[in-house]
């Protein structure tokens, strides 16, 4: 696939099914992620892959974390939480590990990890896989972060759901650059 075709046409895919990416496909996705721009080459990222039965364990943890956060959560809400990770054959948890640095503020480190997540999405699309970046309440849940082994300087930037697209891909929305871009000349 041409690089520009990829960048112009990537869309998120929410309806995902088996098969999961192969380990060779995943390897390429992570290699693309690791090419993210990275001020100071701090490599401020870490990723967890979760597939197969581990998704059920993650769903159990999500339901537990919801119960801890909202003891009044309904059975329906708990069941929904439990099933969330089953929406794709494989999930990548994107984790930012912000470290103190004299020249690179934490916000820039988070931006670098966010670029890495975009690299994952692009490399998934380039290989005919489908992927979608989700956050939601569980990305910010300290109980879940701890259960997943995150330390105090780490944060979840998202769960990337990856699999085989079910059905045809959406047409990307046509946005006009001129709505967002203007030239600054410095004159006047
Ligand atoms: C940081 C971040 C968090 C997101 N979280 C969610 C989410 O929790 N649920 C969701 O449906 N979309 C979420 N999205 C948006 C989708 O990933 C996707 O970009 C959006 O649906 C537009 O689709 P497109 O990528 O095909 O343009 C998130 C995007 C970003 C960048």
From TrEMBL:
Family to which this protein belongs: Belongs to the nitroreductase family.
Known cofactor(s): FMN
Cell division keyword on record: no
Principal EC category: oxidoreductase
InterPro entries: NAD(P)H_nitroreductase, Nitroreductase, Nitroreductase-like, YdjA-like
Matching SUPFAM superfamilies: FMN-dependent nitroreductase-like (SSF55469)
The protein, known as: Putative NAD(P)H nitroreductase
Pfam families for the chain: Nitroreductase
GO molecular function, one term: oxidoreductase activity
Top-rank lineage group of the source organism: Bacteria
Cofactor note: Binds 1 FMN per subunit.
Domain Nitroreductase: 9-163
Binding site for FMN: 10-12, 35, 39, 133-135
Cleaved signal peptide residues: none
Keywords, alphabetical: Flavoprotein, FMN, NAD, NADP, Oxidoreductase
EC number(s) per entry: 1.-.-.-
């Amino acid at each position: 696939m041409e690089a520009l075709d990829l960048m112009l046409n990537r869309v998120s895919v929410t309806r995902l099914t088996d098969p999961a990416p192969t380990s060779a496909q995943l390897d390429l996705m992570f290699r693309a992620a690791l090419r993210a721009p990275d001020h100071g080459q701090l490599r401020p990222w870490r990723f967890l892959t979760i597939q197969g039965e581990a998704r059920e364990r993650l769903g159990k943890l999500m339901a537990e974390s919801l119960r801890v956060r909202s003891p009044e959560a309904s059975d329906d809400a708990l069941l929904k939480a439990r099933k969330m990770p089953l929406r794709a054959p494989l999930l990548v948890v994107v984790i930012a590990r912000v470290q103190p640095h004299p020249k690179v503020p934490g916000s820039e480190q988070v931006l670098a990890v966010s670029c890495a997540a975009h690299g994952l999405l692009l490399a998934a699309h380039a290989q005919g896989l489908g992927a979608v970046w989700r956050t939601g309440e569980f990305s910010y849940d300290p109980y879940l972060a701890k259960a997943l082994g995150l330390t105090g300087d780490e944060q979840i930037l998202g769960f990337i759901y990856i699999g085989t697209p079910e059905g045809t891909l959406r047409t990307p929305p046509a946005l006009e650059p001129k709505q967002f871009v203007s030239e600054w000349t410095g004159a006047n």
